[in-house]
Backbone:
């Protein structure tokens, strides 16, 4: 596996993206109030929402945050199922290699505008580093 750490991202390059099916029961107890400060380990700025992987209550949780302020739980995995953060990133990268995880997490409120601004800041930093070499 190849590991990239430019611009604060940790990325394991792996195989093709497979669809992950999560039951509602797997996501039980990981709901969070919009605006609460959380430990974000990944951001994806999508066309109609921002997806954020968060460490929350012993879980790795993927949230979808809409411009309206609505927050939905998309996926959830117990941190106990993984040896380390690197192990979680490696496993997730096999299922969806286009998701990039941070080397160092960032603490932000789980609000659309804050997440969108952080994603844009990181995208600009990444693009600048790519141009420099």
Residues:
């Amino acid at each position: 596996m190849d590991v990239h750490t430019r611009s604060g991202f940790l990325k394991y390059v792996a195989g093709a993206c497979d669809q992950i099916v999560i039951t509602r029961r797997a996501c039980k107890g990981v709901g969070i109030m919009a605006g609460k400060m959380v430990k974000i380990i990944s951001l994806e700025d999508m066309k109609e929402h921002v997806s954020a992987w968060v460490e929350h209550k012993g879980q790795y949780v993927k949230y979808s945050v809409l411009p309206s302020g609505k927050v939905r739980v998309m996926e959830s995995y117990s941190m106990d199922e993984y040896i380390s953060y690197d192990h979680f990133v490696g496993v997730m990268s096999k299922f969806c290699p286009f998701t990039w995880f941070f080397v160092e997490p960032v603490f932000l409120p789980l609000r659309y505008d804050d997440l969108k601004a952080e994603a844009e800041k990181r995208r600009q930093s990444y693009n600048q580093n790519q141009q420099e070499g």
Q: What stands out?
A: DSSP finds two helices and eight strands in the chain. Residues 112-132 form the longest helix (21 residues). Residues 1-29 have pLDDT under 50 and may be disordered. Helices lie at 85-95, 112-132.
